[in-house]
Amino acid sequence: MLQIRGLDIPLPGGGERRFAVRGLSLDVAPGELVCIVGESGSGKSLTARAVMGLLPDMGLRASAGTITFKGENLLALPQRRMEGLRGREISMIFQEPMTALNPLMRVGDQISELFRIHRSGFDKAERQRRVLSLLADLNLPDPARIAEAYPFEMSGGQRQRVMIAIAFALGPSLLIADEPTTALDVTTQMQILRVLKRLQAERGTAVIFITHDFGVVAEIADRVAVMWRGELVEQGPARAVLGAPAHAYTKALIDSVPRLSADARAERAAPTQPPVLSVAGLSKIFRVRKGMFGAERKVEALKQVSFTLHAGETLAVVGESGSGKTTLSRCIVRLMRPDAGRIDLFGEDMGQLAGGALRARRKAIQMVFQDPHGSLNPRIRVGPIIMAGPLAHGVKPAAARATAERMLGLVGLDAGAMDRYPHQFSGGQRQRIGLARALALEPLVLIADEPVSALDVTVQAQILDLLRDVREKLGLAMIFITHDLRVAGQVADRIAVMRQGEIVEEGTPAAIMGSARHEYTRQLVAAIPGRRLI
Amino acid sequence: QDTPKSGGTLRILVHPEPPHLVTALGQASGTVTIGGKVFESLLTFDFELNPKPGLAERWEVSADGLTYTFHLRPNAKWHDGKPFTSADVAFTTQEFLMKTHPRARGVFSRVAAVETPDARTIVYKLKEKFSPFLYAFELSGAPMMPKHLYEGTDFDKNPANEKPIGTGPFRFVAWKKGESLQLERNPDYYRQGRPYLDGISFHFIPDAAARTVAMEQGAVDQAQFDAVQFTDLERLRRNPALTVADKGQEFIAPLVLMDMNSRRPPFDDKRFRKALMHAIDRNFIKDRIFYGQGKVPTGPIASSTRNYDPKVATYPYDQEKAKALLDEMGLKPKADGTRADIKILALPYGDHWTRLAEYLRESFRRVGVRATVENTDPGNWIQRYTNWDYDIVYTFFYQYADPALGVGRTYLCSNVRKVFLANANGYCNQRVDDLFTAATAETDETKKQAYYSEIQRLITEDLPVGFLLELQFPVVMNKRLRDAITTAHGPNDAYADAWLAR
Amino acid sequence: MRLRYLLRRLAGGLLVVLLVIVFCFVILRLAPGDPAMIMAGESGASDEQFIADIRRSYGLDQPLPVQLAKYLGNVLQFDLGFSYRQKRPNAELIAERLPATLLLAASAFVLSLALGIVLGYLAARFRGLADAAVSIFSLAFYATPIFWIGLMGILVFSVQLEWLPAFGMRSILPVTGGWAKAADVARHLILPTLTLGLFYTAIYARLMRASLLEVRPLDFVATARAKGASIGRVWRRHMFRNAVLPVLTMAGVQAGQIVGGSILVETVFAWPGIGRLAFEAVFQRDYNLLLGIFLVTSTAVVAINIATDFIYTLVDPRTGPAR
Amino acid sequence: MTAAQRFRTNIAACIGLLILAAMVLLAVLAPVLYPTSPWEMAGEPYLRPLQGGYLLGTDMLGRDIAAGIAHGARVSLLLALVATAAGTLAGVLVGAVAGYFGGRIDELLMRATEFFQTIPSFLLAVVLVALFSPSISSIVAAIAVVSWPGVARLVRGQFLSLRQAEFVQASIVLGEPTHRVIFRQILPNALGPIIVTASLMVATAILLESSLSFLGLGDPDLMSWGYMIGASRNLIRDAWWMCTFPGVAIFLTVLAINLVGDGLGDALNPRLTS
Ligand SMILES: Nc1ncnc2c1ncn2[C@@H]1O[C@H](COP(=O)(O)OP(=O)(O)OP(=O)(O)O)[C@@H](O)[C@H]1O
Ligand SMILES: Nc1ncnc2c1ncn2[C@@H]1O[C@H](COP(=O)(O)OP(=O)(O)OP(=O)(O)O)[C@@H](O)[C@H]1O
Ligand SMILES: [Mg+2]
Ligand SMILES: [Mg+2]
Ligand code: NI
């Protein structure tokens, strides 16, 4: 039904490569679900947009090739005709559910707009009926209310369902979904994937599903196409590609996916020494006002959180977005003050410290941040960034420099990095620099807040390896925050599952994955995509 | 075409719009221009400043100069129909004006007793001889107020202020604030067949350029004082339908003086003050800044005022002489060419006064005196002037016909007071004081002239102030307005004789 | 909910107004210069007794806090005091001038907002020549001093072409008839409105353009395109509304500045409004009048800000009350 | 591309820079080109442009308008720069403190800012200058007083968001002292928008100064463009050149600064790099 042949999309001059997409050929049969995988920047989105005729208008256009849809070359179609196809024959879902809907329009209107645009001839009542039935089809509760709601009143998952409703409203033959679940929690992701799969099966729609997550691929794909630097390096039936990847790059990609093996590590012996860090009854309440005229709302970000951490141990904290993981880490490093509870570091209450004493104590507990772009000051060279910690704690510049170089070595960068600026490094390298900065103070506890979730799987695997390495070498105790149970299972000695500010369950990876006691934990585990295959 | 005709409404531009019309309560220029048509005094004065009948048809002065008797018009009435009597006069001068009018208070406090033998006669007995006494009975100096409306009230807040009742040829009709004010013909006016005009309307247009346009288009017939900008005079003069009056300010005779604070060095040195005078080209001021409206003065008394004497020391424009004087003082130019630093406190009453400050600064700079201009708002200006906080300040002084009234205040030792328009620069020459005292009491004209001639010579020699300009405020009229400017009060006069040609 | 918030905003606004009064009161009284002296000066001559009388009758002889307390007390009764310069109640003076300023400011506001939004829209939508033209237009008017635009307007349209009156709000010769009167005022209104309005038009055009360009790459725009909506529909129905909101907010904030800018325009065009009144009051050191003007204008600004906030919540569902 | 390179590709900004450079040059060379005081009544009054050897004519007292414009450039640019510096400094200080410490201090400072924004700014400037007598210092102070709130808000916003930036959090966790966090971590990253705002503020300051001078509230000893227009505005019907040329000078300068400021804004905003 869809045939892409030799598609070239050149990049405007000055980019890292000449073509965003190069010589891409791909077929999609009716009713088929094709996943395009590949790491960030490999050209997945541009391919999808080229099919829609919606390349971002900053001078990007297909320079060669054809995209044939039901016998017509989409690249040569007049604007009018293309508009007629969009939404009716080919529809698309975008990655960011929070911004993909018009914030000022009621959800129902956004769906029924489609009927107006394509002159379906439905009268008002008919349009309304169809909107409601579509919403009901997507398992949305109380469709009538949802239709009247504005996007801001809905959760991410709900919005993505509305997007799906829009995509399916006119029963298109082809649906393109560009990472539609990446921004969602695993449980929500699983629901969305199921709905999508069901509708696709029911209506016989062909789907191009773009993702970077092999778990998702394993879960839903009929066929897989792997992209690498703008080129399609491999394609084939899902099972074949996942089971026996032909291309080296595909192999590396699949190998990088954290295994769900619970057996990886021997159980650690029960600790004998007192814990390095113990947290008891930690609570934090945010008071927020929604909008200008909204009422004040209390968010209980942390409710009576307690745990202990022993030397050399890694505790993974898992939980969905908004469950309070970041709040927990910030309270521990005293970036914010908890409302109640105590945090003892070596038996000393951190809550009592302030000013100079607090600063001195910070040496012992350091942090690695999530965003490799945002966690390094773009205006300071790498050397000074790493040296800042030691210098702040009274180390002489020369010694601090030596430490910095040593730390760079430890994280696998050469000393030449010292004089460069952060933007001259890749995401993975930056994350290493962030780690080096934290380690330069020789802390006893390291808190890592989603340190790999912004990275591609291959890089992610390297960083996880590095972390394990360093932890072993330095005997660090670590709190590893993640929303990804696969990752947690790989790095942690123990996993704590958070939900709405509470730790609902704590246990070894094996226990959590295998025999969770808490219902929520079981849901989480069940929602991990591609469990059967990878 | 030259015989007066009755009828028509005269339209006059007034700017700024006055706060009220009661000339006895305040003498802002608009108040006098409009109020002068409603309220009258006992006398008016011709261009030579000779007294003419007003509300008084005759008057006598006793030989000893101490008793003044006025015979009032028999048929003068207030606009509300009540007769005008000597009781009104006595009330006005001894009660009303004593409370509200500092200048009148200065005159009438010299009165020992007032007698009103009958309703049409009033007799003033003075404590001592005071030759300028008659000049007090002029429309802005002693406007007559109705006793029956004001007696025993708070004059400032009397409701009659809103709808003024006078004796003049025109009666108040209505005032649309911010827009216009109407006066109508007083049918009961005591002069037969007067006034000619059916009424006068006054228009308030805040913008200067718009006023000029109004004059050019013939939308109004007259504009005077601040209603006309000096900068527009050239084009108005070129307009064949308009004329610019060259008479009618003899009574006030505004004289622009540059007050140099003699308390401060280097102004305490006469030579410095003289040097500054030589540095100024007063013809430039007259021609370029005031567009020819006036004359270069010779001394402290304006040429139209009584007892003027031109035979005095003069200070022609001469930079070399100025420099020589400064050299003589020991004020040699420093490396940057300056000899002294002084400040000019600019008069904040409009562009031309600002230009004058700029001109003075440049003139002084040319002879090596570096001046800086200080701009203030009127409040600050008055405050600093009255508190003697300035180097150089300039403003204009009304002469009020007799030197004793408008001139002496600037030079008398006895008037060195922290009061507005007193002797601020601190000049004190006992001889000058004595001469003024003698002249004020003198009724013999030749002797009086001798005193004043000596005063003028002394003051021009001592030069406490610089005499910049005998200013003639612009008064622009449409040529169809006739016989308007007939007295020394010019546009402030009652206009009983004015008429409109068709 | 909305009501309670509104009340809170109103209370906050009142506080700001109160602060404005106190602030102005204090700086005005601290500044050098004595109003009694000016009045004395005006009468041509003066003496100590006269000045003392004036001071007493206007309460200027009392300590500052007492004067302030009295003033506030009066304001609560809508009494803005008495102008000793103009010998009339301030409230009356202000009320007399306010309509002219409101007329001018409102027409300039409407003109600039409407024109600015349209121009910004055209520039962003059609780029190329339209964009260049609008950019040049807005840069030019943004960079030209308001008073100079006014003067050049007078020079060209009044002096040279004689199309429009240069000064004032009404013709010198009174016009009769309701419509004729309105038309007369309208003719006088054109140049001042353009002068005051074009500056803000420039601002709003720039804002609108930037706002649209900011909205353009957003996902929901792509969604709308993906639905098959034509480019025109996407711009009109989706982008416009989202882009115009920040412009409206900005306009609300600037409404007060327009009143400030009208001092200049009123000076140039002899427009009998509150801006000129303020300017005259400054020069005549008419404290109470000036205070009254500050009070009225800042109240207006606060009111406009609250109103825009409120309208904003009606237009933008996100800021509406929690349901 | 570096910011400088990006700036260089912006034609409008380059034109702006050129005009600005010319104005600065004029300002610097004014005493050489017109060695006598611009107040000097050099020639006949009311000379038209080119008449009597005066490039732009003379004014009502015979002062050379070209000389006035050259010397006015000094005044306008200098005053605007000083006022901007003062306003920016105050704004940065207030904004930084409010944004970094938040809470009650923020509340208080923002109330103050709001309060200053409630009074129509031009009215406030007029009153301040008039009350405290027109002079360089009162004009600079008045311009600074009305322009700091904008900067304060901007800086506060920057600080508020940068404070949450991970690199700032990192530096706090490292134990760096507060002043280092503020001045080394946050401020340099907030500098771009501050520079852009400040550059545009120079333009606004020139407009403000000229507006004040136009109303007769300029420093009486300084020849400024606004003064020239204000002094000759009543003569517009007889002598158009007197207020036209100074207006053109203001226009060009403000335009140039705006172009440069916009260019800087684009150049310093990495988001716009294609
Ligand atoms: N508007 C644009 N202008 C210029 N280059 C672009 C634009 N959009 C994308 N690119 C470049 O094109 C290449 C492919 O981008 P694309 O968005 O298709 O990647 P992707 O595979 O979807 O990545 P991700 O997983 O991060 O979404 C990248 O190198 C990107 O930098
Ligand atoms: N500064 C804040 N002000 C108000 N509410 C906050 C603030 N920080 C977090 N919250 C709220 O507290 C709750 C917990 O947030 P937190 O950032 O700790 O979640 P998280 O588990 O880290 O989520 P994510 O996976 O999205 O990073 C959320 O509901 C969030 O909206
Ligand atoms: Mg993508
Ligand atoms: Mg988080
Ligand atoms: Ni990057």
Q: Write the CATH homologous superfamily of one domain in chain D.
A: MetI-like
Mass-distribution shape of chain D: elongated
Bound molecules: adenosine-5'-triphosphate, magnesium ion, nickel (II) ion
- pLDDT averaged over residues of chain D: 87
Rg of chain B from C-alpha positions? 23 Å
Indicate the overall shape of chain B: globular
Summarize the structure.
The complex is a heterotetramer of chains A (534), B (502), C (323) and D (274). In chain A, 36% of the residues lie in helices and 24% in strands. Chain A is of the alpha/beta class.
Detailed description of the structure:
The complex is a heterotetramer of chains A (534), B (502), C (323) and D (274). Helix content of chain A is 36%, strand content 24%. With 534 residues, chain A is of the alpha/beta class. Chain B is built from 15 helices and 21 strands. Chain B has helices at 29-35, 86-100, 102-108, 147-150, 208-217, 233-238, 270-279, 282-289, 319-329, 351-366, 378-386, 403-406, 408-411, 430-441, 445-462, and strands at residues 9-13, 43-45, 51-53, 56-61, 67-72, 111-118, 121-126, 170-176, 180-185, 199-203, 222-224, 242-244, 255-260, 294-295, 340-345, 369-374, 392-397, 465-471, 475-478, 481-482, 499-500. In chain B, the strands form five sheets. Chain B has a seven-stranded mixed sheet with strand order 8-9-10-1-11-19-12. The mean pLDDT of chain B is 92. Chain C has 323 residues and is mainly alpha-helical. Chain C has two domains: 1-90, no CATH class; 96-315, MetI-like fold (Orthogonal Bundle), CATH 1.10.3720.10. In chain C, helix 5 (90-126) packs across helix 8 (178-215), helix 7 (146-160) crosses helix 10 and helix 10 packs antiparallel against helix 12. The mean pLDDT of chain C is 80. By secondary structure, chain D is an all-alpha fold. The longest helix of chain D has 37 residues, at 65-101. The mean pLDDT of chain D is 87. Chains in contact: A-C, A-D, B-C, B-D, C-D. At the C-D interface, helix 1, helix 6, helix 7, helix 10 and helix 11 of C face helix 4, helix 5, helix 8, helix 9 and helix 10 of D. The structure holds adenosine-5'-triphosphate (2 copies), magnesium ion (2 copies) and nickel (II) ion. One magnesium ion is lined by residues 44-45, 178 of chain A.
SSE diagram, text form:
The complex is a heterotetramer of chains A (about 525), B (about 500), C (about 325) and D (about 270).
Chain A: E1 2-10, E2 19-28, E3 33-37, H1 44-52, E4 64-69, E5 72-73, H2 79-85, E6 90-93, H3 107-117, H4 124-137, H5 143-148, H6 156-168, E7 174-178, H7 186-203, E8 206-211, H8 214-220, E9 223-228, E10 231-237, H9 238-243, H10 248-256, E11 277-289, E12 296-309, E13 314-319, H11 325-332, E14 340-345, E15 348-349, H12 355-362, E16 365-368, H13 382-392, H14 397-410, H15 427-439, E17 445-449, H16 457-474, E18 477-482, H17 485-491, E19 494-499, E20 502-507, H18 509-515, H19 519-526
Parallel strand pairs in A: 3-8, 3-9, 6-7, 7-8, 13-18, 13-19, 16-17, 17-18
Antiparallel strand pairs in A: 1-2, 1-4, 4-5, 9-10, 11-12, 11-14, 14-15, 19-20
Helix pairs in contact in A: 3-4, 4-6, 6-7, 10-16, 13-14, 13-15, 14-15, 15-16
Chain C: H1 2-30, H2 35-42, H3 48-57, H4 64-76, E1 82-83, E2 88-89, H5 90-126, H6 128-143, H7 146-160, H8 178-215, H9 219-226, H10 231-269, H11 274-283, H12 287-315
Antiparallel strand pairs in C: 1-2
Chain D: H1 3-9, H2 11-33, H3 65-101, H4 103-118, H5 121-131, H6 136-163, H7 166-173, H8 178-214, H9 225-232, H10 240-268
One magnesium ion binds near residues 44, 45 and 178 of chain A.
